[in-house]
């Protein structure tokens, strides 16, 4: 969905190489209990190298966890996963209870970023709590370079209608 950027702000290109491409295939021999099957490493990022611990990852677009996983989004999350565009989705009762801490964590973490990256927050649903947060923190959002997209547009397709916003 977005290009992953390295820690120096340079864009990586090409496809991610798999550790399988650089190794000859191994065989599991039935009579040899010491034989093993090689498996690709899942710990790496693009290019097979994970950033050093504590080094933030930069993305163009990031979906914030929803449901029970939404409780894992805190200031540390936003310090480690920096994006120019965050999508906050999920229209379930739990979301209203955990959304305010998520939004406040974004503000608190963004204040700690060394770079002044413009951030766009795109909620995929409408809620009273979101409107309240927006009104209460609007000045701080502006100071930190955070824009919240809101849209009252509705898309109608066949017998279904749903809210939408255009992201450029």
Task: Describe the 3D structure.
Strand 8 and strand 9 form a beta hairpin. This protein has three helices and nine strands, in the order βββαββαβαβββ. The chain is α/β, with parallel strands linked by helices. Helix 2 runs parallel beside helix 3. The strands form three sheets. A four-stranded parallel β-sheet has the order 3-5-6-7. Strands 1-2-4 form a three-stranded mixed β-sheet.
Strand count: 9
Q: Decide which structural class fits the backbone.
A: alpha/beta
Element string (H = helix, E = strand): EEEHEEHEHEEE
Strand content: 15-25%
Low-confidence stretches: 1-46
Our count of helices gives 3
Main beta sheet: strand number and arrangement? 4 strands, parallel
Summarize model confidence as the mean pLDDT. Answer: 73
Report the C-alpha radius of gyration, rounded: 21 Å
The helix content is 10-25%
Strand order of the largest sheet: 3-5-6-7
Distance between the termini: 13 Å
Shape: globular
List the helices and strands and how they pair.
Elements (H helix, E strand, L loop, with lengths): L3 E2 L51 E3 L2 E3 L10 H6 E3 L1 E4 L4 H18 L8 E5 L4 H17 L1 E3 L4 E5 L2 E5 L4
Parallel strand pairs: 2-4, 3-5, 5-6, 6-7
Antiparallel strand pairs: 1-2, 8-9
Helix pairs in contact: 2-3
């Amino acid at each position: 969905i977005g290009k992953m950027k390295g820690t120096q702000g340079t864009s990586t290109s090409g496809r991610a190489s798999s550790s399988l491409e650089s190794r000859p295939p191994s065989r599991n021999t039935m009579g040899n209990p010491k034989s093993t099957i090689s498996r690709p490493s899942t710990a790496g990022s693009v290019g097979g190298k994970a950033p050093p611990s504590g080094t933030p990852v930069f993305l163009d677009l990031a979906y914030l966890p929803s449901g029970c996983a939404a409780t894992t989004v805190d200031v540390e999350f936003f310090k480690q996963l920096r994006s120019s565009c965050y999508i906050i989705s999920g229209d379930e009762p739990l979301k209203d209870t955990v959304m305010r801490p998520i939004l406040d964590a974004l503000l608190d973490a963004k204040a700690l970023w060394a770079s002044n990256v413009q951030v766009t927050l795109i909620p995929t649903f409408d809620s009273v709590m979101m409107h309240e947060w927006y009104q209460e923190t609007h000045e701080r959002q502006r100071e930190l370079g955070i824009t919240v997209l809101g849209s009252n547009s509705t898309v109608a397709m066949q017998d279904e209608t749903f809210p939408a916003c255009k992201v450029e």
